[in-house]
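Entry for the shared binder. Reason: the reviewer on the internal report wants the predicted structure included alongside the sequence.
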Amino acid sequence: MAPNATAMAPSWAGRRQRLLGLRLLAALCAAWAVPGLAAAEGEDRVLAEGDERILAEGEFRDPTDPSQVYQGTPYVWLGRYEIRLEIRPVPAEGLILRLKAGCKDDQRTALMEINRQPPMAITYSGAAGFFDLDFDFRLLKGVEAYDIRLKPARERAAAFFAGYQLLAAGDEPIPDDKLPQVKVTLSRRESPTRGAGGLADAFPEMKALWGTPLPEPDEADPQEAAFRRARKNGLRANEQFFRSRRYLHGWLGQADPATGLIPRNLRESRDYWNAEDAAADNYPFMVLTAYLTDPDLFAGRMKAILETESRLTARLGRLPDAWSFSRQAFLRPEPDAGRIIFGASEYAKDGLLPLTEYLGPSPWADRLLELEDGVWRAASVAAPAGPIPSDNVEVNGEQLQVLSRIYWMTGDERYLDYAVRLGDYYLLGDHHPTRDFDRLRLRDHGCEIVSGLCELYVATAFARPDKKAQYQAPVREMCDRILAVGRDERGMLYNSIRPKTGEHDPGICDTWGYNYNGIYAVYLIDQVAEYREAVRFALSRLPELKDYDWGGVADEYADSIEGALNLYNREPVAAAAEWMDGEIGDMWRGQGPDGIVEGWHGDGNVARTAVMYAFWKTQGLRLAPWRDDLCLGAVRVGETYYVSLWAKEDWQGKLIFDRPRHREYFHLPLDYPRINQFPEWLTVGPAESVEIGDGSGGATILAGSQAWDGYAVRIPAGQEVRLTVSKRARQ
C-alpha cells in the first residue's frame, strides 16, 4: 500500500460532463436488488455553480513519480495505481461525488466498485485536458459509509484522475460532526504477466510460441550464445509482425464500404476520413504492414485506398479535405485553406515521408511530392523571404523536416529554397524558438520546429555552407537553451518550457527522442561533445522509467520507444536496449482479439514502432512470403551477424537484405537521426557483397542487388536454421 494521497484544494476545470449518477446508480441498484430504490425519471440533474456546497476535496498525485503531470495538473493513472476512497459518515440527504477526469482527445474507461459490489464500467471521452464527472449517490438510502474503488478495465485505455470533490446533495445544514471524512489510498498495481514475447491475452493461440522456453545465452560459448540471442529475437520480432498484421485487418474491417477509406476513429469521428489523422497516422502503417506481410493486399486494396483518396478528397488543388461517409461529400460545406494545409502537411510528414523512407520510389512518394507542391502553391503568410504556408509552428516544423529530405531525394532546389525561407523566418528574424517564444512545446504539436530547424541545418551544411554559417549560432543557441532548462535529472525533456524565464511544465514528454534527434544531428555536423553526451545520458537513465505510464496511451509508448530506438541505433547504450524490451509489451497492452489497439488514429503509430522494433531484432532482414509462424532473429557480434530462422511448418522463400536507404532512396549525405525513419542495421550497398554461411563449411556470396532480391531459404518444420552473414567490399 502506498501512503495516503495528500488532500489539497484542487483548481477545478470549467468543463463539466452531464451528471452520470442517476443512470449509474439505477443500474447498480438493479444489479444489487436493493429494495425500494428506483432512479428518478426525467433529465439528469446538473448542479449549477451557485448551488454547489463542497464538503470535502483533494488532489490525486502519483506518490513515486512527480512528473506524472498533464497540462500542468498532477494526476494518478489507473494503469499504475488503483484509487480507493473511504467516505464516512454519509449525510442523510446523500451526496454527490465529483471526479476530475483526464482525457487526451481519446476515450477512457474505469471500473467503479462501491461497497464491494460488482463493478460498473465508466467510459468517457473528450478533448485534451481535464473535466468533471459527477456521480449522484442520493439514491442509496440508509448507507452509512462508502468504500469506492477505481480500477482499470481490461484491454481498454485506463482512466486517469486529478482529484475529487464531495458535494452536498441538499440545502439543509450539516453539523460539523456529521461532515463526511475521506480517506484516499493508492494501491500499486502489479505489472501484467508476460511470456517471452510479451502479452498474449488477446491471442491465446500464440502463447505457446511467444512463451517458448529458451536456454539462456550466458550458459554457452560466444557463438552459441549469439545464436541463442538471435532465436529469442526471432520470437520478439514474430510478435510485432503478428500484432501489426492483426491491427491491419482490424482497421480494414472498419473501412467505409462505399469508398474503402478508414475512419478517423471508432468513436465520435467514425463517420469521416481526414488527412491529418486517418491518412497521416493510421493508413500509412497499414500500407507498410501489408507490404511486409501481405504483398497482394499491398498491391491491391492498399493502393486502391491511395487512388480513392487522391481522386475523391482533393479540394484545394490536389490537397485533400475531410470526407463524410454518411453524406458521401466533404465534411465541411466550405473549404478552409488553413485547415487543409495543416492536414496535407501532417499527411506528408507523418505518413507519406516515413513510407517513402522505407519503400523508396512508389505511388506514395509521388503523392508526397504532389502534396508538398500544393502546400507551397497555397502559401500565403507573409515572411521576409517570401510567403510561407502557416504561422503555426507545427506546420512549419513539419515542412522543414519534409523539405530537408525531399530536396536530396529529388535534387530540386525549390524545396531547399522553401526550407531556407522558413529557416530565415525562425533563425534570423524575431521568431527564434528559445529567444523569442514565450512558451516552447517539446512534446508533439510544437516539437516539430526544433527537429525541423536541425534537419535544415544538416542540409545547409552540405548544400549551402554560407547559409549554414548564418544558422550556426542561432541553432546552437536553441539547442543549448533546451538542454539548460528543458531536462529533468534523468535527461528526460519537459512537456514545455518558458525559455526566457527557465520555467517548465513538470511533466515529461513522450517525444523526448524527437528533440534529441535534432540535437544529435547538430552534434554530427559541429561535433559539440555536450550534445552527444546529453543523448547518451538520457539513454543510460531510461531504466528509471521502467513501468512509467506515458499517460496510459499506446501512442505515447510508441513515440517514446521510437525516439529511444533511433538514438540507440547511433549510440548503443545497453540500458536503453533493456528498457525498450520491457516497454514494447506495454505498448500493445490495449490490443483486442480483433486487432484494434485503442480505436483511434494513434493505433497506426503503434504499428510503426512495432515494425521499427522488429527490424532491430532482425537487424533489418525480412522473410518473404511472410507467415504467422515464422521466427527470424539476428544479432551482430563484431563484424558477423548471427541469424536464426524457425517455422512451425515447412517453409520456403527468401531472406531479403536491406539497403542503405538514406543513400539509395533519399541520396542523403549523412544518415542523421530523424523522426519516422526506419533505422538501418545490416545494409548492403550496390558496391558491397555479403557472405552467407550455413554451417556446412561452404559459403554463398551475393552482390548487393542480389541480396536485395533475397537469398533462397528452406526451413523444415520445427527446426532451427542458423546462418552467419558478413559484409565485404566487392572486388
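Summary line for the report: Residues 222-252 form the longest helix (31 residues).
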